[in-house]
Amino acid sequence: MDLALIADRFGDKWTLLFGGAIIGALFGAFAQQSRFCLRAAAIEFSRGQIGGKMAIWLIVFSTAIAGTMLLTAQDLFTATEARQLASPQSLSGAAIGGLMFGTGMVLARGCSSRLLVLSATGNLRALLSGLVFAVVAQASLHGFLAPVRDALAAPLTTLSIGSNDLLVMSGISDQVAFSLVVTGLLLSLSLAAWRKIGLWKTIAAVSVGACIPLAWWFTSAMTAIAFEPVQLEALSFTGPSANTLMLFLSEPGSMIDFDVGLVPGVFIGAFLAALITGELELQGFEGGDSMRRYLAGAALMGFGGMLAGGCAVGAGVTGASIFALTAWVTLFAIWIAAATTDWIIDRKLAEHRARTRLVAGSIPQL
After folding, report:
1. In this predicted model, what pLDDT tens digit does every residue of 323-349 receive, in sequence order?
2. What is residue 96's predicted lDDT score, i.e. its pLDDT?
3. Which residues make beta-bridge pairs with 283?
4. Residue 132: helix, strand or coil by DSSP?
5. Which of 217-231, 253-267, 318-332 has the largest mean confidence?
6. CA dist., res. 80 & res. 323, Å (int)
7. What is the mean pLDDT of residues 292-297?
8. Contact between residue 37 and residue 111 where contact means Cβ atoms under 8 Å apart
9. What DSSP state is assigned to residue 342?
């Protein structure tokens, strides 16, 4: 594929948009089929299980890192030019934002990318939650929540430790790191086989992970041929969701780039996958309490994801694939918060309700 010829014919911006849409469609279709979801994996793990959901997440995670490292080894991508490594990042924002995102992820029953995929299949809960997520993310980026985000991000940045490259700081060579990642991929594939998640879901999970290095390659190639500067990036859903929202509120053609193609692409890909497999189904809220829970979770994810500099995919997979320290801090915080929120809100609350029903059932009716 000669991107230069495509860019000459359609222009740099439209090439970026269509590239983002195609990669997004692939991600959406395979994420819908694999049921890729960090929330599901975190809850499964926190409840003492290592099953199919965990296997799928590990496959995606390790495939993304292995593929990105292969790109770097072939000089097709320079990780140090990515925003996460080329500019100072907030460690305090990564920790606090990750905790907020993980909490919101459990309350909304899905991370931002999962909500987008579910909304394409007819889940109106996910659709409304996704809109709230995008609005809060935009408010945190350029709106009234931006000063709060800046205040929380300022106390501790990577300037104080001199780097955001985890491999450089740890002294681990690329060869050792790649060996560990490949070992992790093989173990996750073995876990998937043991848990009998099926060949198609396994292939879909590998394909989801492969979308990360594909996006790195595409945006990297575009930086070399575009007339105007192009941001080197892969997949994330906090900033892109906010940008896509603003697309509908701005002058036509003023915000054409990779991000704006990505979000609609994911929606279209997930919709087509669900349509082909007969999985389209309208679903709504089950009452006021459910609605409040979803919307509160979406708001927490919108602010937390922007504060952390990435969501469960943007930080937890994309940022981790280039070994950005702040991304790994965010990912760890998301896991901790998700497990804690599940334990407090879902498990303990369910136990309390069960005891209440038991006591109420044991009281004689007069």
Report:
1. 999 999 999 999 999 999 999 988 776
2. 98
3. 123
4. helix
5. 318-332
6. 10
7. 94
8. yes
9. I
Q: Between vectors from CA 312 to CA 309 and to CA 314, what angle results, nearest 5°?
A: 50
Nearest Cα to Cα of residue 266 among 104, 70, 137, 134 = 134
Task: Kindly calculate the radius of gyration of the chain based on its CA atoms and give it in whole angstroms.
Answer: 21
151-183 pLDDT, tens digit per residue, is 999 999 999 888 999 999 999 999 999 999 999
Name the maximum alpha-carbon separation found in the chain. Answer: 83
d(CA 232, CA 76): 12
d(CA 186, CA 196): 15
CA gap 96, 305 in Å, rounded: 10
Q: How many angstroms separate the CA atoms of 158 and 145, rounded?
A: 23
**Relative orientation angle of helices 52-73 and 199-225, to the nearest 10 degrees:** 30
- 81 pLDDT band, cuts 50/70/90, is very high
Please state, in angstroms and rounded to a whole number, the distance separating the CA atoms of residues 300 and 308. Answer: 12
Query: Is residue 144 over pLDDT 60?
Result: yes
- What are the φ and ψ backbone dihedral angles of 330, each rounded to 5 degrees? -60, -45
Percent of the chain with pLDDT strictly greater than 70: 93
The structure's pTM equals: 0.93
| Under 8 Å between Cβ of 355 and 126 | no
Asked whether the beta carbons of 257 and 107 are under 8 A apart, the reply is no
| Closest residue by Cα to residue 64 from 315, 305, 308, 253 | 315
- How many Cα atoms within 13 Å fall on the side-chain side of residue 170? 11
Which residues contact residue 252 at a Cβ distance below 8 angstroms, ignoring those fewer than 6 apart? none
Q: Cα angle vertex 112, ends 111, 117, to 5°?
A: 95
Of the CA atoms within 13 Å of residue 225, those in its CB half-sphere come to 19
Which residue carries 């980026």 as its tokens? 141
Residue 310 φ then ψ, to 5°: 165, 160
Q: How many whole angstroms from its chain centre is CA 14?
A: 24
Q: For residues 291 and 289, give the distance between their C-alpha atoms in angstroms, rounded to a whole number.
A: 5
| Whole-number Å distance between alpha carbons of 238 and 361 | 46
Give the residue from 42, 88, 36 showing the smallest Cα distance to 64: 36
| CB of 279 closer than 8 Å to CB of 121 | yes
Other CB atoms within a 10 A radius of the CB of residue 63 amount to: 26
